[in-house]
Amino acid sequence: MFGIIDYLKMGAGLAGGLMLYHLYAVSIGYPSAARQARAGYVLVAEKSAAEAQADVGTVATTRL
């Protein structure tokens, strides 16, 4: 039905399309990666804020 050249053309077209999609996704930034990075940053920020509050609490009680 199709010749070997046709399959090679289809493979090249598929690879080219995937490359264009990848370049587009990189240029706008991967939204899912940015979302995950923000989620990780929020967790780290909450942890450091809780530790800072705990440190302030221990300093305040030791000064009394």
Features:
single chain, 64 residues, mainly alpha, 0% strand, rod-shaped
Shape: rod-shaped
H/E element string? HH
Q: Sheet bearing the most strands, described?
A: none
Q: Give helix % range.
A: over 70%
Could you list the spans in which at least 5 consecutive residues all have pLDDT below 50? Answer: none
What class, by secondary structure content?
Answer: mainly alpha
* Structure annotation, total helices: 2
Give the number of DSSP strands.
Answer: 0
Describe the structure.
The chain is built from two helices and no strands. It has one domain. The protein has 64 residues and is mostly helical. The protein has helices at 4-28, 31-63. The chain is rod-shaped.
How is the topology of this model organized?
Elements: H1 4-28, H2 31-63
Outline of this structure?
The protein has 2 helices and no strands. By secondary structure, the chain is an all-alpha fold. It is rod-shaped and about 80 Å long.
